[in-house]
Amino acid sequence: xIQGSDLFDGVGGDLDSGPICSYTDRFCITRxxxxxxxxxxxxxxxxxxRDQTCPLYWDPEDSFDIGSRVVTGLFRSxxxxxxxxxxxxxxxxxxxxxxxxxxxTVDGERxxxxxxxxLCGAPAEREMSxxxxxxxxxx
Length: 139
Fold this sequence. Notes:
By secondary structure, the protein is mainly β. It is 4% helix and 39% strand.
């Protein structure tokens, strides 16, 4: 994988077993149920945790009962236990929205993640509106 100052270029891997994560660059590449590739920002969306740049991690063994079904394989907050599914949809916790995303382009097996722009996740049902701070610079 090649690291640029603002763009991440990498060759894809096996996304059938879960997301491909670059925790030093704070993102994970995964697929939606429809097969679309997305780059999720691996930092908690809950404001106090976000202020601390609280990382999210992928736990393929974790599960959560959402009533109609049990979801296995979740992103978890290291700070407060928030949980998101593999597509970044918020399932549990005080986080006000789904996981934020970076723009992603796919060319065959090559992914390019634009870490210069952050796309805000959809707000949780209980929130009327939410703001999305810019992604902090990656050291």
